[in-house]
Amino acid sequence: MSLRIGKKGMEYEIVISDTCLEEIEENCDYIKKTLKAEQASNRLREKIMETIKKLRKYPKIYVKIEKTDKAGRDYRRIAIDNYVMIYTIIEEDEIILISHIYYGGRNYLDGGLI
After folding, report:
1. What order of strands is seen across the sheet that includes strand 74-80?
2. Which of 9, 25, 81, 101 has its CA 20 to 30 Å from the CA of residue 47?
3. CB 31 within 8 A of CB 40
4. What span, in angstroms and rounded, lies between the C-alpha atoms of 73 and 2?
């Protein structure tokens, strides 16, 4: 089940896909358990949430990438430390759909990951 963060005033509603929620957990677990860096894992989680809060007000400040969703909407990307978060804006419903977060070293554009 995806996570929905409701609208406030002029802000957009945020919907985080199940896939993205799983990717966040996998990345944070990797940092915590494999790299033995619990504080770094917690900081990444906090940065992701801070970024999402800013995104609610200013969804178009991040760069478009060369992919679109099935409805033809542009995807945009946000760099968060060594990770890239991918989202699209559903203007007619004032919703931001966050679909994925990848390790920045992965080729998410050409690898069919979006």
Report:
1. 3-5, 13-16, 95-103, 83-90, 74-80, 64-68
2. 9
3. yes
4. 20
How far is Cα 83 from Cα 86, in angstroms, rounded to an integer?
A: 10
User: CA-to-CA distance for 56 and 103, rounded, in angstroms?
Assistant: 23
- Single-letter code of the amino acid located at 69: D
Q: What is the mean pLDDT of residues 71-85?
A: 93
pLDDT score for 106? 66
Long-range contacts made by residues 72-77, C-beta under 8 angstroms, separation at least 24? Answer: 75/99, 75/114
pLDDT digits (tens, 9 = 90+) for 19-47: 999 999 999 999 999 999 999 999 999 99
Question: For the chain, which domains are there?
Answer: 3-103 (3.30.2310.20)
